[in-house]
User: What shape does this take?
Amino acid sequence: MISKNLNVTLIGAGYVGVVTAACLSPLVQTVTIVEISQDRIDAINSATPPIYEEGLDTLLKTCVSENLRATTQYTSIQTSDIIFIAVGTPQNSDGSANLSYLMAAAETIADEFAKKHTDYPVIVVKSTVPPGTTKNIVEPIIYKKNPNLSFGICMNPEFLREGRAVEDFLHPDRIVIGSTDTKTREVMHVLYHGIGAPIFDVDPAAAEMIKYASNAFLAAKISFANEIGNLCKQIGVNVYEVMKGVGMDHRVSPYFLNAGAGFGGSCFPKDVSALCTVAREHGLEPTLLSAVLQVNATQPLRMIDLLEKKIVSLAEKRIAVLGLAFKNNTDDVRESRSIPVIQALIDKGAMPVLYDPMAGRAMKALFPDAEYAASAESALMNADGCLVMTEWPEFSKLDHEFAVMKERVIIDGRHILTIDDAEGICW
Ligand code: NAD
Ligand code: UGA
Assistant: This one.
């Protein structure tokens, strides 16, 4: 078997679905993306990425002219060797993972298989799901409508970061294949052969847990750095020097130790929360994981506390908020740490003036009445204070732009500014 003979369908054209499809396209015969949003389909078929990702536009141009297409029709499932489920698994109001999109996708696969299927099709759960989901929820849905079908089932978690998704997909530290059957493992090894990364074979529940534990550990590193940072600031020690020294120990590694305004994004908050729910469902109180979330909830509000130490009343004060995306190099504002900060400014009667190189439009959906500036300098014009919330490299170049502020009160939540008189959130 060679990967060039494989036909692949991906359900869901989000960050994971589109990037996986585009990166797998050169390795396989055909790739079909099935998506419910017609806008996303039109964008993909005209080689325009529906999301911003570095390098994705170039990659998509080649794929679309060769073997990748997007559609609302699920029929390609019938002729695919591998069907990935890459739909969202957002957070329910009780913190658990919402599996409704995943279950709907599994039902659709089952319906298509009932009409026609390839010889031993393999269903791959790429979405992040609680341990047990692939075997206890997805597999029975397929089986119920196709009791005589021989099919493979696999959980293959994704570790890409937004903004670096293509590079992360093509050069992963490891590929985790969660499956118990040899035939499925073989197909998945063939599929990923061209990527050339180490493959770690485990059972589906372990694969599901590896994904949650990885995100929880990285989130814990950040909350740890933030708590140490808060203490360092109190004592008058530079947390960036401290964490650099800590990270030089190879057992710790230097990554994800940047203290700041906390972690946002569509995954760390929801996945740590879902893991807490899983623990409670099994009668365990997740003390450490709860603390990781707690530190992260209070951290951005330290920006407001620091501001209020310098500006007695925030009422009617113009406060420039630089950075709205949950991190640099993305237009994604989901769980961005700037959201609670903007809300707190509004609650205190301040007038936030918002600027982000990419995420202004997305934030407008959440704060339609706020003032949006076209550049950092125009956000700073006559401002009484400035909060830096995202680690955009362009903010490191800001210097004379601060001269247009009414009062030079500048708080850096990301250790990105290079001017001397900014106060750091925890340094
Ligand atoms: P997303 O919300 O950006 O995209 C999901 C897409 O699936 C949407 O476009 C939606 O319209 C589509 N969809 C939902 N139900 C569908 C159905 N029945 N048929 C066809 N399309 C359907 O999600 P995402 O960020 O790509 O994340 C997907 C999964 O991967 C989640 O479980 C997430 O936790 C995980 N993950 C995400 C990242 C990331 O960086 N975003 C990284 C690793 C893992
Ligand atoms: C994260 C993981 O890094 C990916 O491996 C994973 O696949 C993904 O979640 C997912 O499951 O969706 P992502 O959310 O795209 O990726 O972004 P990160 O680069 O991890 O940053 C997350 C947040 O942590 C950002 O708000 C960032 O500002 C913050 N951060 C990161 C810190 O505050 N300090 C750091 O040292 C690093």
About this structure: The chain is about 40% helix and 15% strand. The pocket of nicotinamide-adenine-dinucleotide (ligand 1) is lined by residues 11-17, 34-37, 40, 86-89, 101, 104-105, 108, 127-128, 158, 160, 162, 266-267 (CB under 6 Å). The chain has a mean pLDDT of 97. The longest helix spans residues 204-235.
